[in-house]
Design a protein that fits this description.
By secondary structure, this protein is of the alpha/beta class. It folds into 2 domains: about 5-125, Response regulator (Rossmann fold, 3-Layer(aba) Sandwich), CATH 3.40.50.2300; about 130-235, Response regulator (Rossmann fold, 3-Layer(aba) Sandwich). About 50% of the residues lie in helices and about 10% in strands. It has 10 helices and 5 strands. The chain has a 5-stranded parallel sheet, sandwiched between helices. Strand 3, helix 3 (about 65-75) and strand 4 form a beta-alpha-beta unit. Helix 8 (about 180-185) packs across helix 9 (about 190-205).
Length: about 240
């Protein structure tokens, strides 16, 4: 990231929007480029402003945050725009739906200002998961639910084009490790790790690391409730 991080805030409560605006606008590297009262406005403003980050409430009138997220992440012109969904509790099926639809992470509405600011910077950089522990817990909960459901949704399959090293790195990403941590674990340089991650993103047509975590769990590479991937992650 270079220059200002451009943020769009979407929430149907004016006080919430004003609060986010107040917190973010005092930062030298962040600017709020628009506020939306519903999902339809969020999509329209995103297409007009092409922000770096959208803070998206889930439950809004006219068009909810889930559909708005799907519209933004499926728009080729907004390929670099990252969506962070806002929720009041972390194990929320709508939030998981938003992650599957392309959101880069989620944030509790009660988060302290420093947490909000760092979340915006983290997602804008795109080099780490937002709250990796909470993200994995959410994904594990709903993937486990799908696997025990009498009529589960179809699972994703990892393409055979992934090399054994790329599978290893994908599993470590799903464990919440950063590029630097993965590099140290595998005794490779951070630059080499970054190159591997870029190739994985391209091969799986994923927007960011959060999407890679969803894919790793839904494909069965990582099993919910188990600390390591199937024969992929080395022991701690």
């Amino acid at each position: 990231m270079t220059g200002l991080i451009r943020v769009l805030v979407a929430d149907d409560h004016s006080l919430v929007r004003a609060g986010f605006q107040s917190v973010l606008s005092i930062e030298d590297d962040i600017t709020v480029v628009g506020e939306a009262r519903n999902g339809a406005e969020a999509v329209a403003l995103a297409r007009d402003e092409v922000p770096d980050v959208v803070l998206m409430d889930i439950r809004m009138p006219e068009l909810d945050g889930l559909e708005a997220t799907r519209s933004i992440t499926s728009d080729p012109r907004l390929r670099r725009t990252r969506v962070v969904v806002l929720t009041t509790f972390d194990l929320d099926e709508y939030v998981f739906g938003a992650l599957r639809a392309g959101a880069s992470g989620f944030l509790l509405k009660g988060a302290e200002p420093p947490v909000l600011i760092e979340a915006v910077r983290t997602v804008a950089r795109g080099d780490a998961l937002l709250e990796p522990g909470a993200t994995r817990r959410l994904i594990e909960a709903y993937v486990s639910q799908q696997r025990t459901d009498p009529a589960p949704v179809a699972k994703l399959a990892l393409p055979g084009s992934l090399t054994s090293r790329e599978l290893e790195i994908l599993a470590l990403i799903a464990a919440g490790l950063t590029n630097s941590e993965i590099a140290a674990r595998l005794f490779i340089s951070p630059l080499t790790c970054k190159s591997h991650v870029s190739r994985i993103l391209t091969k799986l047509d994923a927007r960011d690391r959060t999407q890679l975590v969803v894919i790793a769990y839904e494909s069965g590479l990582v099993v919910p409730g188990q600390p390591h991937a199937r024969g992929v992650l080395p022991a701690d």
